[in-house]
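Recap from last week: sequence in, structure out.
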Amino acid sequence: MASITRVGIVAKARLAEAAGVIAEVAGWLEARHVRPVFDAETAVLVGLPRERPTCSRDDIPKHCDLVVVLGGDGTLIGMAGRVANAGVEIPILGVNFGSLGFLTEITLPELFPSLESVLAGTARIESRLMLRGQTLRSGAVYSDRLALNDVVITKGAMSRIVDLSVAIADQPVMRVRADGLIIATPTGSTAYNLASGGPIVHPAVDAVLLTPIAPHMLTNRPIVVPAESEIRVTPAAGASNDELFLTIDGQTGHPLQQDDEVVVTRAERGVHLVRAATRTYFDVLREKLKWSER
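Predicted structure tokens:
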């Protein structure tokens, strides 16, 4: 990994308790001749002078060699999408304020040792698969988004069920009659997928998960497919699908029309996460899922 000369610092919106930590991180970096770079929202949170240069969250990956995210998994997911959209391959160090996160697994006491290891080039950095979710409308690309966790198709508030046809390239896979369908990465297997009865998949496994949400047919079961699959989802022929909605990582989305097609493929780039030196993936699972408790 190239030497670190600029570090982006991004905090969860309105996370007032992060202000002191942000200032401490900035001072720690400057003492090591590393320039801290703030997005505009974080600068306001920490009370930086107006003359201090900042940039938008969308642009911050273009100006940094590392991004430190202070908050929770949602904040990190949003930043992962921005890093991927910027077309750069810089690591993200996620620091959790509160309980341990599946992604923001570094705790406050581990923050500075983790930063030290990144600067020294000894940090454990893990690459995570991302998905590209496209909506095709009348043969043209209507929306194009990247997902670290999942691409989800759900019913509207007044709809009974969704009725979808799922294919991989030109091969029919299944018809889904359910409350929705989750297309998840291994990273996202511990998110909405897990809550919907899908399997936990280790992030090193190169695969994608298809999990029906509350299926109305006993034969609808989750399936794990190769990560290189081109997954195509369309309304089932002759089905009445009112108020379908597409959501990317639970953060952005849009309504679907009757003839739309959702195409999900592996993204060109993944995201690189700095992992805690003292904790394995299974340690995180045991703590978050209470596997060690009776």
